[in-house]
Structure formats: structure tokens, C-alpha cells
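User: Need the bound-state model for flavin-adenine dinucleotide:
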Amino acid sequence: MTEKKVLDLIRREMPKQPPEVRKFNFNEVAFGYSEELAVEEAKRCIQCKKAHCVQNCPVEIDIPAFIQCVADRNFAEGIRIIKQKNCLPAICGRVCPQEDQCEKVCTLVKKEGQLAIGRIERFLADWEARQGHVDMPEIPEWTGKKVAVIGGGPAGLTVAGDLILRGHKVTIFEALHKLGGVLVYGIPEFRLPKAIVNREVDYLKSLGVEVYTDFVVGKTQTMDSLLEEYDAAFVGSGAGLPWFMEIPGENLNGVYSANEYLTRLNLMKGYLFPTYHTPIKAHKRVAVVGGGNVAMDCARSALRLGAESRIVYRRSREELPARMEEIENAEEEGVIFDFLTLPLRYNGDASGWVKEMIVQKMELGEPDASGRRRPVPIEGSEVAVPVDAVVCAIGNSPNPLIGSTTPGLLLGKKGNIEADEETGKTSRDKIWAGGDVVTGAATVILAMGAGRKAANSIHEYLMGGDGE
Amino acid sequence: MQFESLVAVLEFAVRKEEEAAEFYTDLARSMVQPHIARIFEEFAAEEMEHKRKILIVMTGRPGWIPQARIKDLHVADIVEDVVPSSDMGYQQALILAMKAEKAAYLLYMELSSASEDDAMKDLFYLLAQEEARHRLRFEVEYDEQFSGEN
Ligand SMILES: Cc1cc2nc3c(=O)[nH]c(=O)nc-3n(C[C@H](O)[C@H](O)[C@H](O)COP(=O)(O)OP(=O)(O)OC[C@H]3O[C@@H](n4cnc5c(N)ncnc54)[C@H](O)[C@@H]3O)c2cc1C
Ligand code: SF4
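Assistant: Bound-state model below.
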């Protein structure tokens, strides 16, 4: 007779810096599980026969298998299992929206004790890094084929990693001076230490991936001229074109796009001035418009630079699209949340700097045909909020440069490249695409998943199939 | 503006739809990006569809279900005017369209309140509601496409 397991429903907390300390520094907030905590947490898994978690992971990691390895303290095997499907586990363990994916459907969620799958994934990746040596895979003999990868974000990095291991020559062309995409210029150090991203990039380079930085495809060279030299190309240029609300006052000084604000901080290391040469203006009262991960990152960065920081969001807390962990972190650190609030316009001072935002209160209307409750303004509820900086974090579209310089490349309404969901194949011969440039701003794991599918299709094409 | 009859009102409304369709067709031709040109072609086709609906009413057939008061998300009220340019994006295209529908709505509401004839008043009101419905279609699309994280 099999022994019945007593359910342990207590999710093990991950140790982190206390809010009153971390809000003054840019160091990583969470320390990660210790070995003991990871093993304890892993032992809570009941190894369901039908593992819903696997089905809800965009890259279908064999979750119960790696969790069991941790429970058995066989960490090397655990990380090996993850890496079969996910080449960037240290990153995904930190930034994946697990509560909407694997953890959302964990059997234990019914009793509010869902397994902390992401934290265990992160533990394994960090454990591997601590071992100090990386097993170098064998690179097959060169197939004679060359692939150009445009953009060094998670989508491009995945394609490059997958194709070099299949014997193709791979070159990444990146517009910025560093690889990593949003992982380096967007997500702040306190959530994703750049050393982790650099480690992954260095690993790819050590496999022989060639890299050109400061290379803007569409300007430095067009797709068509690259394709004279390369047998296939993958476009993973992301969604870096910020939207504004198009309301009065957005051209005042002190009104930033989230991209500009975060790039100054993360990529140019504005917070380390004068060690780094590009300071960022110290603001006293910062309002961040939006409720996604990007908005949380901006608001928490502003706080760390010494400002009073508020999130201005049109809907209620329930609808916030950011990761739950980051919302809770922001709340603990003292970010002010103005829910059901919509900026109408910004007013400036005599020298053209923003000095206040006029906001209106909203209420959620009756559900419409699609079942969504859209926020509608409450008349006469306008108030002025004093601010000296506004960061607009309402979303991004793909940059139109590659689309507009590549004849025959079919684009969607928002300038996103149209690509087959299963293969990443675009309307143009020899061109594949994936990640945010196809879907619009989404997630790291979806970008990686798209990269993997495209790499399979490109490989098949290069080896004589049709890539379909 | 003076209107002799209900038919004259409807003819006026037909002309307005035709003008709007022409406006979008011209814009489509001047766009640098083919995917934006396609958006304006779609808008033009929608205006022609509106015209078709009015023509049905003119033949006296039912087919135009009067709407209750149409919801207003007030997006058109808070965004700034867009000056048409050949490198507009989808966001600008939607703003342009919702503002045009809002302007048409306001015109019909004004004509409705200025009318002394009850039937004409009602007809203008109905036309206004129809324009409000078109405005809402653009506002909802804007809300879906450009306000996901807002
Ligand atoms: C602030 C912020 C926080 C986020 N937080 C999370 C999170 O917590 N969890 C999560 O899952 N997702 C998060 N995301 C979303 C996630 O980062 C993206 O979905 C993901 O990075 C998309 O990967 P990608 O490879 O498609 O594009 P990107 O990461 O955007 O990389 C694209 C790369 O292409 C380069 N490029 C662009 N145009 C050209 C060109 N013409 N020539 C050459 N190179 C070019 C860019 O410089 C960039 O390096 C966040 C995004 C932001 C901005
Ligand atoms: S659903 Fe939950 S309990 Fe079941 S295998 Fe997955 S993580 Fe473990």
C-alpha cells in the first residue's frame, strides 16, 4: 500500500532585503532560497500524475521532474532537466509571471499553497552558477550555413544559442552597445542583476556566436544587404517604440517615456554617477503612468533615487498587469498607488518643466459585449497633483525601422511583423521573426519560446526542408 | 443649416459619409507605410458601410435599429488633435478617426436641438447616436490596443 502524503500548504518565503533598507539601494531585492529552503519547498510537490503546471509553462519544462531532483538534492540533474527547454533559467526564475502560468494551475493552488516553482528554478540556476564551471557542449562541424540574428534580447539570444549548437555560424547584430535587450536596458538591477545576463551572453560568445554591437539594421545595413551574405535571418528586434497618451503637456521637460527613464538608469548606470558619466536628474515627486511591470520598475527606481513615487493607474488593483511579487514589493517599499485615476494633462512652469498633473477619477463601467469593465470618468472629479517628473509606462510597439526598410515584409496594424505562430516564418523569403516584434510587448519566456520555434524552423530550412 | 425635408437630412448624411470615405482614401494614398495605408482603406470602407445603412433608411425599409444612449469612454475628449502626416501610426490613425466621429456627433446633436420639427429632431438625434456608436468603436479599439498597461 502506498503511503498517503500529508499536504504541506505553507509556501516557503524567499529571504529578501527589508523594505526600509532596499528602497535606498539598487542591489537585488530577493536573496533566493537557501539549499534547505529549496529542498523543503520542493518536498511539498505531490508529483501529480497529470501535471497541469507543465501544460501552463510556455516552454513546457518537465516541472515535476526537476522539482523531484531538488527534493532528492540532485541539483545537477535538476538544472539539466530545466535547460533542455529553457536556456535562461536564472532569468526566467526571476522575472516570469509564474502566478499566471505554471503556479496558477498547480494542484495545490486550490488550497492556496501553490508550489513556488519559479523560486526553485532560480535556486537551481544560481546553484549551477556557484559551481564555477560550465559544461561546454560539443559544437558540431560547420554546416556551411550562416545565420544573421537581429537583436540581442531573449528571442535573439535563444535563436543564436540553438543554432550554433546545430553547427551553423551565427552572428548577432545589436543596435545598442550591449546584448540582452530589455534584460539589460529595461529591467532594473534590483530585480535582475546584470551580471546574470552578462554571464549568459558570455556563454553564447564562448560557443562561438559572433556579435556586432552598435549596428542598427535598417540603417547601418538593410535586411536585404545582410541576406546577400547570410543564408537566413531572424528578426528579434523587440518592441522599443514607446507610446504616450497623446494628452496636452507630454512635451514638457521632465516627462519621460519609461524606455528613456530606465535606459538612462540601467544601461547608462545613471544611479552610479559620478562613477558613470550620465547622471539622471534627481526628482522629488515622480508620477508613473501605467500598471505593468515596466511601471513598477520605474516607480521603484524613482523611489531608490530619493523621490516620492506614485503609480497612477486607470483601473483598480485587481487589474494591475504587473507580476504580483513586484506589486507587493512596490507597496512594501512605499510606492503610492493612485487607482482609478487618469491623467488628463500636464502643466508646466515658466521654464518649461512639468509642475503638476491634472487627473480625473474613474469608475469601472458595466461589462460591455466583450465582458470587460472599462474605466469611465467620473465627471467633476478633476484634481491637480504636484509632480516634477512623469514617466509614461503605458506600453510599446515595435520600432518601424526594419519593417519600413524591408520590402515585402508583411506588418500588422501596430507595425508588428506578421509571422507564423508555430515557425516564426514571415512573408519574406529567408526571414523569420519572433518575440515582442511579432506579439507586441509580452514576456521573456514567450520571446524565448518563439525563438526556439524559429530556430527549429530555420534549421530545418537550412538542412534542405522547407522550414514550414 | 436649413433642411427642407427628412430626405434632405438623409442626403446630407450620405454626403458626409462620402466625404469621410474620400478623406480616408486620400490619406491611404499618401501613407508611406503600406500597413497604415491599409488601415485607412478599412476606415474608408467603414464609412461606405455607414452610407449604405443610411440609404436603406431612405428606401423606407427598417434596418436601422435605434440605439439607446451610447457609452462614451471620453478618450476622444482628452487626446490631442492629430495633424495628418504621411508617417502616422495606428495610434494616430485611431485618434484622427474618433475625433472625426465625435465632431460628426456634435454636429448632429446641434442640428437636433436647433430643429423645430419633431421628426427632424429625432432623425438628427438618431444620426448623432449612430456617429457616437462609430466613435465608441474607435475608442474601444484604442482602449484595447493602446491602453493595455494603463
Ligand atoms: C521595464 C520592463 C520590465 C519587464 N519586466 C518583465 C518581467 O518581469 N517578466 C517578463 O517576463 N517580461 C518582462 N518584460 C518584457 C520582456 O522583457 C520582453 O517581453 C522581452 O525582453 C522581449 O524579448 P525580445 O528578444 O523580443 O526583445 P527585446 O528584449 O526588446 O530585445 C530586442 C533587441 O533588439 C535590438 N534592436 C531593435 N531594433 C534593432 C535594429 N534595427 N537593429 C539591431 N538591433 C535592434 C534592441 O536594442 C534590443 O536589444 C519587461 C519589459 C520591460 C521594458
Ligand atoms: S501541479 Fe503543483 S503539485 Fe503538481 S507537479 Fe506541478 S508543481 Fe507539483
